[in-house]
Amino acid sequence: MSLPRLLVLTDRTQCAGPLVQAVATAVDCGARAVVLREKDLPEDARRELGDQLRAVLDPVGGLLIHGGLAGGSGSEAVHLSGSDPFPAVRPRLVGRSCHSADELARAGEEGCDLVTISPVFATSSKPGYGPALGLDGLARLLPGAPRAFALGGIRPEDVPGCLGAGAYGVAVMGAVMRDPRTMRGYVSALRDLPAGEATYPT
């Protein structure tokens, strides 16, 4: 399964308007992979929201990843929290949120296809997981990890540093949820790397 270098994580509480519209704008600006979180929603409502997001992503060949096991039942792609058990029936793509070396080791042993590592920088979107790793801390965690996406306070200007530390890509939530047009900055940052290192699109 193709995996872009840029993940967008949803959080409707940070959107100025409807979540589907925010994601549609982000897709128009270059987003090609979205992790549907919204774990507080009833299963039926979350499934309906997933169908709406897939309708936005399918025309551009985008990827919808369901956050957690419940919302991802029958999905080809899921992203697990640190405490979620590994699915009994393996989807085609499995990711896991990680915050420590032990969690990364577990994800590797499970055969996860990707991980998010956070928080790289201070962020109000994911409190309670500090202190921030910084680029040096990120680099120390990455050797041997599955394809890793740096998450937490990532700005477009941070993209080269995160990839230079060894991350496969970057994941963003708050900035894009608050203003989906900022997606253009992340896409440009991935395209504007030195010749031979540009990583967008993949």
TrEMBL record:
<dbReference type="GO" id="GO:0009228">
    <property type="term" value="P:thiamine biosynthetic process"/>
</dbReference>
<comment type="function">
    <text>Condenses 4-methyl-5-(beta-hydroxyethyl)thiazole monophosphate (THZ-P) and 2-methyl-4-amino-5-hydroxymethyl pyrimidine pyrophosphate (HMP-PP) to form thiamine monophosphate (TMP).</text>
</comment>
<dbReference type="GO" id="GO:0004789">
    <property type="term" value="F:thiamine-phosphate diphosphorylase activity"/>
</dbReference>
<dbReference type="InterPro" id="IPR036206">
    <property type="entry name" value="ThiamineP_synth_sf"/>
</dbReference>
<comment type="pathway">
    <text>Cofactor biosynthesis; thiamine diphosphate biosynthesis.</text>
</comment>
<feature type="domain" description="Thiamine phosphate synthase/TenI">
    <location>
        <begin position="7"/>
        <end position="176"/>
    </location>
</feature>
<dbReference type="InterPro" id="IPR013785">
    <property type="entry name" value="Aldolase_TIM"/>
</dbReference>
<dbReference type="GO" id="GO:0005737">
    <property type="term" value="C:cytoplasm"/>
</dbReference>
<keyword id="KW-0784">Thiamine biosynthesis</keyword>
<protein>
    <submittedName>
        <fullName>Thiamine-phosphate pyrophosphorylase</fullName>
    </submittedName>
</protein>
<dbReference type="InterPro" id="IPR022998">
    <property type="entry name" value="ThiamineP_synth_TenI"/>
</dbReference>
<dbReference type="Pfam" id="PF02581">
    <property type="entry name" value="TMP-TENI"/>
</dbReference>
